[in-house]
Amino acid sequence: MNTLFIVLTLLIPIFLLLTKGRRSPKRVPPGSLGIPIVGHSLHLLRAMRANTAEKWLQQRIQKYGPISKLSLFGKPTVFIHGKYANKFVFTSDSSTLSNSQPQSVKELLGDRCLLELSGQDHKRVRDALGLFLKPESLKSYVGKMDEEVRMHIATHWEGKQEVKVLPLMKTLTFNIICALLFGIERGARREKLVDWFQEMIEGMWSIPINLPFTRYNRSLQASASIRNMMKHLIGEKRRELAKKGVNPHKDLISSMLSTRDENNREVIDENEIMDNVMLVMAAGHDTSSVLITFLVRILANDPSIYAAILKEQEQIAQSKQKGELLTWDDLAKMKYSWRAAQETLSMVSPIFGGFRKAVKDIEYDGYLIPKGWQIFWVTNMTHMDSSVFPESSKFDPARFNNQASIPPYCFIPFGGGPRICPGYEFARIETLITIHHLVTQFTWKLLADNFFKRDPMPVPTEGLPIQIMPKTNITS
Asked: Which residues does UniProt call coiled coil (predicted)?
């Protein structure tokens, strides 16, 4: 009993110190901030891993209404949802909301990446990324991406009876990123990078307590290793660009190094290049691999969708000479395939949600969001809202036949407005080229159940193992 008394005597002042100042101002949204530091983080992460996070949030809505407070990843947070909430998040300027990610994301990716920048800094870096990622620039990379996909299929699919789709799609998208965005050739350096990257990505959404043997600690170490490699790579690119005749836009790093202002000064410094390389690596790797994986899952479950995509892709394949690479014009003909991909994104968004930070006290929906608090929004809250998308649980690519009919700020897998992801077109090209080769070369069936969890990206059971059967009438 004396030992318990001593422990409580020591802990109570610490608890009071941690909770000092946590009393909510008047008129803040209803809800509880929970216990210090941890708050509701473990509840959310546990629900995500059980694929019940949207249900968990719906229960909050039923209990507290459309806006409520909680604590996530060490910060007081306000959860908002719906199309007006999405518009508020994506259109508010930097005097109202700033980009702000959980501490774990900030530490791993860096505080100068696009997710953390606001105002003119955000525009400056976004414009520099956009020079490489805009459709006009990406047209010339379609053939190179097609080559990467063909090489991947020849290495990992041909001659196999069973494959696990998600790990292979992660391998594919990482190789595409290394080749097209960073100019890293196949070999030991790329293999080291992928190992470190997988270690880093596991701690993206975690409680930021840096203790040995924790997921967060391992991720920080992996991030430091990647940064060291990227620093050397940036130096190599800089030396290459000093030579005459080198293409300044042959990869993303070279393009950012070559971007100059009217006084011929670099627009982005080395730290910003490094942080945004880390961001592009994380965003481009996981989002595209998840989209392609779940589209493969849909095609296994719905023969009519598979048949419609196959018909479209076979027409394109039959118009090509054997071995001829796909072109930008070919991608423009893949309209139904992309609508099916959009519907996949609607039902299983790779990005669960995101955060902003209140720059000042904000009046929103009759409540006060205090300065410095996080604002948390969730992608699927409008995607699966039947008042926005009728029969939202039914897989129906036709709902994207007329893009103008979709209410603004309701379909947001890539964000919206001025905050839309600059890598949107890159992901579209990756997805369409990959699906073209898969459906024209293979049929498949699932070998595991349809369950998936979020960690924090959607992860299907056992990585989605499938049995594959090659086709014999391949024309491309």
From this structure: none
Question: Tens of pLDDT along 342-399?
Answer: 999 999 998 888 889 999 999 999 999 999 999 999 998 899 988 889 998 899 999 9
- Please give the torsion angle defined by the CA atoms of residues 300, 302, 303 and 306, in that order, rounded to the nearest 10 degrees: -70
Residue the block writes with tokens 């090659």: 470
Q: To 10 degrees, what angle do helices 270-301 and 303-318 make?
A: 110
Q: Is 421 annotated as a binding residue?
A: yes
Indicate the residue type of 405. Answer: S
Task: Specify the length of the chain in residues.
Answer: 476
Structure tokens at 146: 């097609």
Q: Hey, what are 242's tokens?
A: 């000093």
**Which two tokens mark 134?**
């805009």
Q: Give the bridge partners for 458, in sequence order.
A: 454
Sign of dihedral through CA atoms 445, 448, 452, 453? negative
pTM score:
0.85
SS3 469: strand
Please check whether residue 54 is in contact with residue 378, taking contact to mean a CB–CB distance below 8 angstroms: yes
Say what the alpha-carbon torsion angle 120, 125, 127, 129 is, to the nearest 10 degrees. Answer: -170
Q: How far apart are CA 223 and CA 452, in angstroms?
A: 27
**Averaged pLDDT for residues 246-258:** 85
Find out whether the peptide bond into 456 is cis, omega within 30 degrees of 0: yes
Give the list of residues 6+ apart from residue 114 with CB closer than 8 angstroms, or none. 99, 122, 125, 126, 129, 276, 279, 422
| CATH architecture of the domain with residue range 22-470 | Orthogonal Bundle (1.10)
106-144 confidence digits (pLDDT tens): 888 888 888 778 778 888 888 888 888 888 888 888 999
- Cα(400)–Cα(201) distance, rounded to whole angstroms? 32
Can you give 405-464 as a three-state secondary structure string? HCCCCCCCECECHHHCCCCHHHHHHHHHHHHHHHHHHEEEEECCCCCEEECCCEEEHHHC
- For residue 470, which amino acid is it? P
User: DSSP secondary structure string, 11-70?
Assistant: HHHHHHHHHTT-SPPTTPPSB---STTTTTHHHHHHHHHTT-HHHHHHHHHHHH-SEEEE
